[in-house]
Amino acid sequence: MDLLDLINSQRFLGSEFMMWIWFKCDCYDGILDVKGHGKLEVVFDDALTLEAYMAETERSDLKGGAPAFSPEAKTALRHGKRVSKAKLRIVKEGREWLFTLKAEDLDIASAKIPAVLSRDDDERFFERMYLLEELEEILERIYEEFLHLRLSSKWGALVLPAMYTWIGMDDLATPEHYPNI
Amino acid sequence: MGAFQGNLTYKTFFVQGELPEDWKTLYLNSIRKLEFKPLTPDAEAEEVVGWVSIERPLQTDFHLNNVVFNSFINLGFRKDRWTIPSDLLKAHLEEAEGEYKIQNEKKHLSRFEREDLKKRVKKLLKERSIPKMKVIDMSWDIDRKRVRFWSQSGTVCELFEEFFEETFDLTLQPASPYIHGLQFELSEDELESLATVEPSNFMAGVPSIEY
Fold this sequence. Notes:
The complex is a heterodimer of chains A (181) and B (211).
Chain A lengths: L2 H7 L2 H16 L3 E4 L3 E15 L2 E9 L7 H8 L2 E12 L2 E8 L5 E5 L8 H30 L2 H16 L13
Antiparallel strand pairs in A: 1-2, 2-3, 2-4, 4-5, 5-6
Chain B lengths: L10 E6 L6 H11 L13 E6 L11 H4 E2 L2 E10 L4 H18 L7 H17 L4 E10 L4 E4 L4 H15 L2 E4 L2 H6 L5 H9 L15
Helix pairs in contact in B: 3-4
């Protein structure tokens, strides 16, 4: 298989990653321990899109409030839909990043970064890039954790069964719902 | 726009290949060779792309100070395109064809005559309009071997990818879950699995929905 085929065939990992973050955030009340960054607040904000796998026309666009906690979102999951994009909020040491993450390429859109203090053009550029780099670094550490898990036998044996339970649940998840890995 | 101010929506590319030792001089020359050159009504091209200064899209006077920002190469990717409304072109073409028939005492025009007239009408309309301009910021982080490109449009990204590779003789890989995975220290088994793993079935344990 050439690289382009691999890129396209493995795009589903993006939506599985986002569903796993959603599940983990639900279990730990939005507090994730991220390697190299410590405990961060990771929240699904006010926009969430779910699409039917292999049938992208069947889409649930949920906006306003906290759609990740809505019965509609869980119903979409029970219908086999997967996360295709979501607005996320990450808070680290009082600084906040708000952005849309797209599952198919893990690209960032409409990002709002912590306030940039520099007034000089060049300094402002470096500060903006530094803040973006910090956000990318956080996301990569979370993705790396997911990928090690996803590519191990623990995924099928522990994580997937826990996610089945979570998808079927109407109540909020607790740390006990996350598998002991 | 985007790198210095405004919207933070961008596509990430991973740069493959090593930089030459004298990359600053070499790349400055390569950028100058592919600097933006404006469209002219006489030219056949309907669209043109080229590099411009990131902070001044009308400037193509490149030097290290406006291209290299510490460990970043910053450029504007400018794409100009003639956009003549089809209704306007059609109306002017009908007029021109009518006049041509009268002047040449013809009832019908050959395909060649029609195409020639279309070219002339297009040129006249181009002389009376200005091309549509689009400038997209590009910021290449040399240390992290990454490029941020402030557009997520598939066609624009493909155009940019080709142009970047032509300029710098390096390959770009657009971000994706697979390519991101390759950036981590994965074991051989994990790498194999990354390429072959299949989608999870999240529905297996979910009770069927009753209506």
